[in-house]
Write a structure and sequence with these properties.
By secondary structure, the protein is α/β, with parallel strands linked by helices. It is built from twelve helices and twelve strands. It folds into two domains: about 200 residues, 3-Layer(aba) Sandwich (Isopropylmalate Dehydrogenase); about 140 residues, 3-Layer(aba) Sandwich (Isopropylmalate Dehydrogenase). Helices cover about 40% and strands about 20% of the residues. Strand 6 and strand 7 form a beta hairpin. Helix 1 packs parallel to helix 12 and helix 11 crosses helix 12. The protein is globular, with a radius of gyration of 20 Å. The structure holds adenosine-5'-triphosphate (ATP) and magnesium ion (MG). The site of adenosine-5'-triphosphate has 19 residues, from loops. Adenosine-5'-triphosphate (ATP) binds next to loops. One of its GO terms (molecular function) is NAD binding.
């Protein structure tokens, strides 16, 4: 099990250290950790936010544990030297086309969610978002028409193979978790969505154990807020996924608890190559103070065990330990508590 640890900036090193400690406490077979500089930390040492050495370390590993990048000291740099470029570069060079964002309201934390407290507890879904196609990457431009009016356009397109491979990621996730799959599109008006729907239905034939339904994106946005419990795995394209994943994250109401995965095409011995990171950023305002909540990164490590190493049991154990820790009232400042990074990490390990 080769894991590249890229802590990055701000609270990145603090939260990744706790996630690594959790992994080390699990007695995983052949666990080997590599590390690399990334973001502002890399810029200060190597003059670039994503050095070749780091990319190489990421490539030889089966999975990457990523902290966060962002450094106020780099604000004045040209765009290609800014820390944020590191994550974009990793996505591009490593072909990470699938973004997985779970959103879950843990028991006892319903009051942090902006959803009605009697329904908030029903929010436990996984958004599988396509990351490399759609309207962001189609032909785009602006022009002045013959009438002298300005006009802009962005072409939305999906190729069959792009839909097929992201659909497989979502069906595999639904098969492992036993949850139903909802494919979200806008097939009543968009051709891309028609193709999307057709391909998803074809792929579904390979996963007879997974229940599939289809929903228009406008309805899906409403249902996440009004009936969150009707979702398990949500499969969608880049644009709709961008919006829905932020909607779902906001519905949880606690940034320090949200993990994510970005998966590539390469298969490892027991899963899929991927990069795992918390949703939150480098939080320079609390960096170096031992205050950051490491749970989002610890939950990201659980996702890594599930998706890159086929260790569902270990993933579930970590998630259960986090849930217990929260239920026992061990809360970081972001959740209205006063426990620090190390205390939270230790509490999770005790409950493993
Ligand atoms: P970046 O520029 O890297 O995105 P940011 O400060 O803009 O950093 P976040 O890092 O997402 O954005 O932080 C938003 C707010 O949430 C900050 O006030 C930060 O302190 C807080 N925060 C983020 N992550 C955590 C965490 N793990 N634990 C506690 N508070 C957090
Ligand atoms: Mg930010």
């Amino acid at each position: 099990m080769k894991i590249a640890v890229l802590p990055g900036d701000g609270i990145g090193p603090e939260v990744t250290a706790e996630a690594v400690a959790v992994l080390e406490s699990l007695a995983l077979p052949g666990l080997t950790l590599f590390s690399g500089d990334v973001g502002g930390a890399a810029y200060h040492r190597h003059g670039v936010p994503l050095p070749d050495e780091t990319l190489e370390v990421a490539r030889v590993a089966d999975a990457i544990l990523f902290g966060a990048v962002g450094d106020p000291a780099c604000d004045a740099l040209e765009r290609h030297l800014r820390p944020e470029q590191a994550i974009l570069g990793l996505r591009k060079h490593l072909g990470l086309f699938a973004n997985l964002r779970p959103a879950r309201v843990f028991a006892g934390l319903e009051h942090l969610s902006p959803l009605r407290t009697d329904i908030a507890g029903g929010l436990d879904l996984l958004i599988v978002r396509e990351l490399t196609g759609d309207v962001y990457f189609g032909a785009k431009g602006q022009r002045v028409t013959d009438d002298g009016e300005r006009e802009g356009w962005d072409a939305m397109s999906y190729a069959e193979h792009e839909v097929r491979r992201i659909a497989h990621v979502a069906f595999r996730a639904a098969a492992v978790s036993g949850q139903p799959l909802t494919s979200v599109d806008k097939a009543n008006v968009l051709e891309t969505s028609q193709l999307w729907r057709d391909v998803v239905i074809e792929v579904a034939a390979e996963y007879p154990g997974v229940t599939l339904d289809h929903m228009y994106v406008d309805n899906a946005a409403m249902q996440v807020v009004s009936h969150p419990d009707r979702f398990g795995v949500v499969l969608t394209g880049n644009l709709f996924g961008d919006i829905l994943s932020d909607l779902a994250s906001a519905a949880v109401g606690s940034i320090g608890l949200l993990p994510s995965a970005s998966l590539g095409e390469r298969q490892t011995a027991h899963g899929t190559y991927g990069l795992y990171e918390p949703i939150h950023g480098s939080a320079p305002d609390i960096a170096g103070q031992g205050k950051a909540n490491p749970m989002a990164t610890i939950l990201s490590a659980a996702m890594m065990l599930r998706h890159s190493f086929g260790r569902e049991d270990d993933a579930v154990r970590i998630e259960a330990a986090v849930a217990r820790t929260l239920a026992d009232g061990i809360l970081g400042g972001d959740l209205g508590g006063s426990h620090g990074t190390a205390a939270i990490g230790a509490a999770v390990r005790e409950r493993l």
